User: Fold this.
Amino acid sequence: MLTTPLRPPREADRLFFSAADAEAHRRRDGWTMVEEAGRGCRRVVPSPRPRRIVEAGATRALLDADLVVIAAGGGGVRVIETAPGVYRGVEAVVDKDLASSLLTAGLGLPVLVLSTGVPKVAVWFRRPAQRDLDRVTVSEARRLYADGQFPPGSMGPKMLATIEVRGTGWARGDRDVPRSPGRRRGRSRRHACVPD
Assistant:
């Protein structure tokens, strides 16, 4: 996964450390740490935008061979290009939804399916005025995203991914996709972002 240049750390790792361990990593390893109330400390690393899927050709070959391909999970391996065709791994977090969108568009795939932790994509989420979305145009999704309806670290990357894949994206609203009764009966609740 070729990324944009690294920026200051902002994305937290999933691991939690005690205050003493966090301080030791700060001093010894130069890590940037943040405290989360009542949970401990977490390391933060840059979160660059994915620019290109280095293995897109290999992924295409596997798809063309009718194989099931799992790619861009967890955003893939993060690298920067130091010279043409020469890559160096970097410590960073790349959003898996944006990476999946980039891969979908790059391979010309007809649809992107993103699993969500809620039954429906919604505006004014968890507020009295909450409204579930079934179908929006790309321009409407852009406007809602710009208005802050889909926050970073939540639905924001998923909606940005569907927008960037040019309206062919689906954010699937199954909390537990493998066990979802709706999925087994072909009635999964979903949100579609369609071209204008």
